């Protein structure tokens, strides 16, 4: 049996929904920039965050792959700094994008809209001698 509570105006002031996240992980591909008709930059990249956890004395890994979108000059700046393999950190929010295909199929995708992104450690590069 479930119980329902009445939402008072005071409760709404105390409890507000939040949509903020922080992630670190590897830049899975080089950032790509495209420009909207109004010249606004839209930068996209993929982030792979790996979680390690124990199972019967063995360490296992689980990967979380997400698409990240940044708008404007901050995204352009990050695109010039980040390269595939870099360890990065982002702060942003989760957003669901919905659209309809040319044949009428409805589609939806979750992605992160980043407010900030920074390269925390560059990927190791190997030099050949």
Describe the structure.
Keywords: DNA-binding. Pfam families: SSB. GO terms for molecular function: single-stranded DNA binding. The structure is a single chain. The chain is mainly beta. The protein has a single domain (18-121), classed as OB fold (Dihydrolipoamide Acetyltransferase, E2P). Helix content is 12%, strand content 54%. It contains two helices and six strands; from the N terminus they run αββββαββ. The protein has helices at residues 9-14, 72-81, and strands at 21-27, 32-35, 41-55, 58-71, 87-100, 106-121. The chain has a five-stranded mixed β-barrel with strand order 1-3-4-6-5. A hairpin with a 5-residue loop joins strand 2 (32-35) and strand 3. The model has no long low-confidence stretch (mean pLDDT 90).
SSE series: HEEEEHEE
**Beta strand %:** over 45%
Main sheet overview: 5 strands, mixed, barrel
- For the biggest β-sheet, the strand order reads 1-3-4-6-5
Summarize the amount of helix as a percent range: 10-25%
The CATH architecture name reads Beta Barrel
Distance between the termini: 72 Å
Form type: extended
CATH topology: OB fold (Dihydrolipoamide Acetyltransferase, E2P)
Q: Could you say which structural class the secondary elements and strand pairing correspond to?
A: mainly beta
Uncertain runs with pLDDT below 50, 5 residues or more? none
CATH class: Mainly Beta
Radius of gyration, CA atoms, in whole angstroms: 20 Å
The name of the CATH superfamily reads Nucleic acid-binding proteins
What is the average of the pLDDT values?
90
How many helical stretches? Answer: 2
The number of E-state strands comes to: 6
